[in-house]
Amino acid sequence: MDVTIHPMPTAVARAFRAGAPDANGQLPERATSDGGANPCRHCLRMIPEGAGMLILAWRPFSAPQPYAEVGPVFLCAADCAAWEGEGIPPALASPEYLVKGYSAGERIVYGTGGIVPVGDIPARAAALLAEPRVAFVDIRSARNNCFQARVTRSGEAPPAL
Predict the structure, then answer these.
(1) Taxonomically, which superkingdom (predicted)?
(2) How far is 20 from 114, CA to CA, in rounded Å?
(3) Are 94 and 139 members of one domain?
(4) Residue 93 CA: distances (Å) to CA of 4, 98, 154
């Protein structure tokens, strides 16, 4: 099965850049990237050293509920092109990630979560999406639980991003 990795939608990124409040009702913080691990959730590339960035709390789900995790994310402060590539996005530069499946009702499907080497993400996501009860897969930091990207079956739009 082919899978697609989806970034934060452009409309959401534009809203945050324009000053929309984050999931905690706060304005995104403005900062300057130190060139370290600052992955933009829109272009799915590392934010270059010296570039402006936003730090905000994001809930990539349609509504608050017990399984709708909120976490910190980085976003290029300047416009950037949304990730449309194939394979592993450059922002996924850590050795491993937490990968877990969610139902169409945006609930974690128990037993699907696991720490996966970065190169194995597409295969693991495809295996999870082969299960009928899994509607989408989220990629999160294995160390900090920050949302990275959403995965669907190729040709399917990501829900609730």
Answers:
(1) Bacteria
(2) 33
(3) yes
(4) 18, 13, 23
